[in-house]
């Protein structure tokens, strides 16, 4: 893809977010666009940075560590969000690089974060991933286990949880999954909802998404 195409993709996504916000009677500022740059090299990311986008998502710690430091140095104030699974042995590296982690999904990871975060001195926003479709191949806590896990994150591991993240099953309508995620967030006093990807971010905004994770609609096919 040429840089013009990435800038066009970003502009089209921005326009659609603005439209979805108007329809839902929400402020545009209540939705953060995370441009998901996984698998794309620095030369594909540069035009999106040049267009003013400052929040990016990556799904692998090693990949992000390899390509982002020079880009971050050139564009201070850029935020990186980890949206993929995190192994406990990579937690230290993750909290050093990322501003948010959307994949808190098990006690061992919560425990590791509870140790690594105070030691790092960094403020990292945390999202608990909920496996709303209860798909065996997908990460995340089951909906019926979410309340207990969130409580344990707070009380046992001293974590501040900001919100929830979900990835609806590819072959189902996303709306019920967004609704269930919003409901779990509400009853746990969580204000942030990371939901919606290229195919369904407008629907997610209708259901209260505060963070949409959009990759292919900006960067093209992976
Ligand atoms: C890759 C990925 C996205 C972006 O998906 P697109 O369909 O390309 O927008 C969003 N969220 C997660 C967790 C991802 O892994």
Layout of helices and strands, plus pairs?
Blueprint: H1 3-23, E1 32-36, H2 42-50, E2 55-58, H3 61-74, E3 79-82, H4 91-97, E4 100-104, H5 107-120, E5 125-130, H6 143-155, E6 161-166, H7 175-187, E7 192-194, H8 201-206, E8 211-214, H9 216-219
Parallel strand pairs: 1-2, 1-8, 2-3, 3-4, 4-5, 5-6, 6-7
The protein binds pyridoxal-5'-phosphate.
Pyridoxal-5'-phosphate binds at residues 36, 38, 59, 83-84, 167, 197-198, 213-217.
Protein name: Pyridoxal phosphate homeostasis protein
GO molecular function, one term: pyridoxal phosphate binding
Function: Pyridoxal 5'-phosphate (PLP)-binding protein, which is involved in PLP homeostasis.
Coarse structural class: alpha/beta
Shape: globular
Largest sheet: number of strands, sense, barrel closure? 8 strands, parallel
Rg over alpha carbons: 17 Å
CATH topology: TIM Barrel
The low-confidence parts are none
Number of strands: 8
The helicity comes to 40-55%
For the termini, the CA-CA separation is 11 Å
Strand content: 15-25%
CATH architecture: Alpha-Beta Barrel
Organism: Rhodopseudomonas palustris
Cofactor: pyridoxal 5'-phosphate
Domain Alanine racemase N-terminal: 17-221
Family: Belongs to the pyridoxal phosphate-binding protein YggS/PROSC family.
């Amino acid at each position: 893809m040429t840089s013009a195409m990435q800038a066009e993709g970003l502009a089209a996504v921005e326009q659609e977010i603005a439209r979805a916000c108007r329809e839902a009677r929400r402020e545009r500022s209540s939705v953060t666009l995370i441009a998901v740059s996984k698998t794309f090299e620095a030369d594909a990311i540069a035009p999106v940075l040049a267009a003013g986008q400052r929040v990016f998502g990556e799904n692998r710690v090693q990949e992000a560590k390899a390509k982002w430091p020079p880009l971050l140095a050139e564009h201070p104030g850029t935020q990186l969000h980890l949206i993929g699974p995190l192994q406990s042995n990579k937690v230290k590296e993750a909290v050093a690089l990322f501003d948010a982690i959307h994949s808190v999904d098990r006690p061992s990871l919560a425990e590791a974060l509870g140790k690594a975060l105070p030691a790092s001195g960094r403020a990292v926003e945390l999202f608990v991933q909920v496996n709303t479709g209860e798909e065996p191949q997908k990460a995340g806590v089951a909906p019926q286990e979410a309340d207990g896990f969130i409580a344990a994150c707070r009380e046992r591991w001293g974590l501040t949880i900001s919100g929830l993240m979900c990835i609806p099953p590819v072959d189902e309508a996303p709306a019920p999954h967004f609704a269930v995620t919003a409901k779990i967030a509400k009853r746990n006093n969580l204000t942030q909802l990371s939901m919606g990807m290229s195919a369904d971010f407008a629907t997610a905004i209708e259901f209260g998404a505060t963070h949409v994770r959009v990759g292919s609609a900006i960067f093209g096919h992976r």
